[in-house]
Amino acid sequence: MEAEMKKFVRSWAAVAVAGLTLTGCGFGGDDGQSEGGSTLSFLVPSYSDGTKALWEGIIADFEAAHSEINVELEIQSWDNINDVVRTKVQSNAAPDILNIDAFSGFAADDLLYSADEMVSANTVADFQQSFADNASIDGAMYGLPLIASARTMFYNTELFERAGVAAPPKTWDQLLDAAKKVAGLGDGVYGYGMPLGSEEAQGETSIWTFGNGGSWTNGSTIAVNTPANLEAVTFMKRMIDEKATQPDPGASDRTPMLDVFIQGKIGMVVALPPTVGQIAEKNPGLKYASAPIPTKDGQPMTLGVADHLMAFKNKGDKQETVKTFLDYVFSAPVYTKFVDTEGFLPTTKSGAAALAGKKEIASFLEVLPNARFYPSTNPQWATTQGAMQSLMGQIGQGKEPGAVLDEIQAKANG
Fold first, then answer.
1. Are the beta carbons of 232 and 214 closer than 8 angstroms?
2. Cβ 69 vs Cβ 324: under 8 Å
3. Contact in structure between 239 and 182 (CB atoms under 8 Å)
4. Is the pLDDT of residue 301 over 50?
5. pLDDT at 296 over 90
6. Which of 335, 322, 185 has its CA nearest to residue 266?
7. Residue 319 predicted with pLDDT over 50
8. What is the CATH number of domain 152-303+375-413?
9. How much is the pLDDT for 32?
10. Out of the domains of life, which is the source (predicted)?
11. Measuring CA to CA, which residue among 12, 47, 41 is closest to residue 200?
12. How far is CA 64 from the centre of its chain?
């Protein structure tokens, strides 16, 4: 689970890899045919200490049932995998199958199979629609969503009871009211944790803008200073001005803010699946529950993150071999075990059904079909995100939301 937390910090390094200029890279070398069979090269990141053994077990079981196919596993740390991918692609030695987050640059240069060329129609249809849409460019799906993370609102049930808050809020107005009641308890207790520091201001802000039906793009153009986004950020500033949040949100990063919640001093925070384990480790006596994130009108929404599998159109016809292996990986028993062991959320409908009884992730699975995503396939998103991380906290220092969004827009426009 710790690996999942780190992914939010390193994800944009992978975007840079996928944005390499790859046009003209033909893939030569061995065609992968050997001894009457076929060999697939498979490059994956290490999510945990158990990732290597988990994939080795999956591959061993697959090869036992498909003796004509050999899968050669290569595993790299997240610190190294972007450099490894870059070197392999530039050397005309891309892996047959790659597990990473970003894929748009490879797809733009026509280096990848589309989803319907990689897996069966049944496998494609099994993906949650929100994750399938996020893995698509111009209507064509190029990444197969492998693992997911989503967010829900964690709330301190003991503070709610003391403050007279009967139920978790569903709308922004209810959230403001509940947060002010909890903050009214005093003794260093805050209503709502709003982390607008440099660690992940874009995450907190997206939760609000997406919760108002907003977006960071208009077609292929970055669109920050839109009416829907302005309305959301204006309400964020109202939360701050009415002392419904912790002091100085602009100086608050998510990780230390969550620690304050775990210590029992914040009424509500938006958190991730690994937060469950952190609470169990740091303060198992904390009385808390989770619920969908409040939105302006109460319609369900969550911020989603996904990593993908993709297959390169290398020399030699391996399409059917790739399809055989990937259909096996996404078969419900195999896929569910992988996701559950690594501590993530499933991207497939069958996986969600299989894990529906797991209490620790039940609230996350509930909101998963309503996931919204960063526009990570847009080449200007990395710049936009950086501007949000450095500038959004100014709304807690008196700067008007419209001026902040205009400044971020200007940075995005270059």
1. yes
2. yes
3. no
4. yes
5. yes
6. 185
7. yes
8. 3.40.190.10
9. 52
10. Bacteria
11. 12
12. 33
In 78-212, DSSP assigns E strands to 97-100, 136-137, 140-141, 144-149, 152-156, 190-192
Q: Count other C-beta atoms under 10 Å from residue 343's C-beta.
A: 21
Confidence of residue 379 (pLDDT cuts 50, 70, 90): confident
Nearest to residue 330, comparing CAs of 91, 103, 128, 70? Answer: 128
Q: Are 370 and 302 in contact (CB under 8 A)?
A: yes
Instruction: Give residue 247's identity as a one-letter amino acid code.
Output: P
**pLDDT for 35 beyond 50:** no
3-class secondary structure for 323-376?
A: HHHHHHHCCHHHHHHHHHHHCCECCEHHHHHHCCCCHHHHHHHHHHHHEECCCC
Would you state the CATH architecture of domain 39-149+304-372? 3-Layer(aba) Sandwich (3.40)
pTM for the full model? Answer: 0.78
Q: Where are the alpha helices (DSSP H) in 43-120?
A: 51-65, 78-90, 104-108, 115-118
For residues 296-317, one letter each, b for 16 or more C-beta atoms within 10 angstroms of the residue's C-beta and e for the rest, the string is beeeebbbbbbbbbbbbbbebe
Give the per-residue pLDDT at 9. Answer: 33
Mean per-residue pLDDT for 164-184?
98
Same fold flag, 39-149+304-372 and 152-303+375-413: yes
Long-range contacts of 50-59, Cβ-Cβ distance < 8 Å, separation of 24 or more: 50/341, 50/342, 51/75, 51/342, 54/338, 54/341, 54/342, 58/329, 58/334, 58/338
**What six digits make up the tokens of 366?**
């509930």
| Pairing state between β 305-311 and 97-100 | antiparallel
- Quote helix, strand, coil % in the chain, to nearest 5: 50, 20, 35
**In 5-20, which positions are buried (b, 16+ CB within 10 angstroms) versus exposed (e)?**
bebbeebbbbbebbee
Q: Residue 71 and residue 148: Cα distance in Å, rounded?
A: 24
Q: What is the rounded average pLDDT for all residues in the chain?
A: 89
- Distance, CA of 212 to CA of 231 (rounded, Å): 8
Residue 186: pLDDT above 50? yes
How sure is the predictor about 37, in pLDDT bands with cuts at 50, 70 and 90?
low
31: left (phi over 0), alpha (psi -120 to 50) or beta: alpha
**C-alpha span between 73 and 46 (Å, rounded):** 12
What is the spatial distance between Cα 142 and Cα 135, in angstroms, rounded to a whole number? 6
Q: For the purposes of burial, counting CB atoms within 10 Å of the CB of 217, is it exposed (0-12), middle (13-18) or buried (19 or more)?
A: middle
